[in-house]
Amino acid sequence: LGGPGLALPPLQNTVPSKLRQAALVGIIMGSDSDLPTLKPAAEILTRFNIPFEVTIVSAHRTPTRLVEYASSAHTRGLQVIIAAAGGAAHLPGMVAAITPLPVIGVPVALKVLDGMDSLLSIVQMPRGVPVATVAINNAVNAALLAVRILGAHVPEYRDAMHAYMKEQENIVEGKIAALEE
Ligand code: RP5
């Protein structure tokens, strides 16, 4: 959890119980082949005690499901959507075209083009329909960004993010101290 090389203990559960009931973050992906890439996002949200849901929504194989998911997301209580896709990677942009919620795009690297196709597809949204794009395969940052978005209105999430940042700082300082011994 917490990125490569980081083995962090769980954060304290500081989230009000009313916020634990319904999913606040939706994690969607174009295919089950994306699941291993998205697993770290689920692990981060679990660490922060943020309720989330995970499902597959394909923009080209299940277009009706895409419209249903994106158009109902805000009415179901979701506040942020993390959308991952590889290749043509139109899922995040299509979701952002339908929902008023913030959409975080995760470009997934396929066997060809090393994910550059997915990255450029997701990051190059035309003006008017934003997708906050993280680095290729960086589901950890997608989840952390979702926590920060939620933290803008929920002090407990903001405090938890501060604690997470402090943990990272402590880990690096520990490594520096070990090097300098
Ligand atoms: C995209 O096509 C998915 O997001 C996945 O990254 C890619 C390949 O899908 P599969 O052929 O593995 O189902 O829609």
Automatic annotation (TrEMBL):
UniProt KW keywords: ATP-binding, Decarboxylase, Lyase, Nucleotide-binding, Purine biosynthesis
Keyword Lyase: yes
Keyword Ion transport attributed: no
GO biological process: 'de novo' IMP biosynthetic process
Record-level Gene Ontology MF annotations: ATP binding; metal ion binding; phosphoribosylaminoimidazole carboxylase activity
UniProt record similarity statement: In the C-terminal section; belongs to the AIR carboxylase family. Class I subfamily.
Name of this protein: Phosphoribosylaminoimidazole carboxylase
Organism: Geranomyces variabilis
Organism classification: Eukaryota, Fungi, Fungi incertae sedis, Chytridiomycota, Chytridiomycota incertae sedis
Gene: ADE2
